[in-house]
Amino acid sequence: MNFLRKLFSSYKESGKDNYIRKQPVKLSLDDSFVHHFINKGGKFLYCTKIEEVIHNLQSISKENKWDTLSCNDVDLLKLTKKIDISIDKTFKNNNPIFVSCEHLIANSGEILFSSNQIGSHKLASLSDNFIVYATTSQLVKNISEGLTGIKTNFRGNIPTNISSVKNYSITDNVADDFLNYGNSNSKNLYLLLFEDL
């Protein structure tokens, strides 16, 4: 026993090492979002050019053998014209959905949607597969800033059906709290994040 005690007591953490280890790590908004997003199972592709967005969209479709996407966003439909895939302008349960979002929530890795993207559909009733196009200017610190951003951007015409995807692994059905019981918003989600700042 004395041998083990000597072995483990021979390494004592210095005061400087202990101080450094206990310092909180402060990440930028984008680093924080990506950290939480990936830890929850999200698939993240960073793009600096629109051509990269189009290329990544094509690659995702080929990788998953998707021959049809659901998309009703006029701006995103312009991107889909450059790839070889058929587009359904209605959200069908079995087609992957190509959609934009309201905000990316940095402190939790969530993606915030509203009726502007998903209409009156509940997230749980939509396809399990999402491809989300977002820009770095849509990053906000927390859900409160996201809701404030929606209120500011749409004064007088605030969208309804505001909800978020919190988990990116559809096999993990553990609810975050009792309020989500029976309403799983888990999605197999790819994020095409475009640098616009």
Give a brief rundown of this model.
With 197 residues, this protein is an alpha/beta fold.
Annotate the secondary structure layout.
Blueprint: H1 2-9, H2 15-22, H3 29-39, E1 43-47, H4 50-64, E2 68-70, H5 74-80, E3 86-88, E4 97-100, E5 103-105, E6 110-113, H6 115-118, E7 129-135, E8 139-140, H7 143-153, E9 163-165, E10 188-194
Parallel strand pairs: 1-10, 2-3, 4-7, 5-8, 7-10
Antiparallel strand pairs: 5-6, 6-9
Question: How is this structure best described in words?
Answer:
Residues 41-190 form the LUD domain. It comes from Tenacibaculum platacis. It holds the Pfam family LUD_dom. This is LUD domain-containing protein. The chain is of the alpha/beta class and 197 residues long. The protein has one domain: NagB/RpiA/CoA transferase-like (Rossmann fold, 3-Layer(aba) Sandwich). Helix content is 32%, strand content 21%. The chain has seven helices and ten strands. The radius of gyration is 21 Å and the shape is globular. The protein starts with a helix and ends with a strand.
Task: Name some characteristics of this structure.
single chain; 197 residues; Rossmann fold; 4-stranded mixed beta sheet; 7 helices; 32% helix; LUD_dom; NagB/RpiA_transferase-like; LUD domain-containing protein
Query: Overall pLDDT, averaged?
Result: 85
Q: What is the chain-wise order of helices and strands?
A: HHHEHEHEEEEHEEHEE
What's the CATH topology name? Rossmann fold
CATH class descriptor? Alpha Beta
Shape descriptor:
globular
Q: Do you know the CATH architecture?
A: 3-Layer(aba) Sandwich
Helical/strand content category: alpha/beta
**Unreliable residue stretches:** 172-182
Order of strands, widest sheet: 1-10-7-4
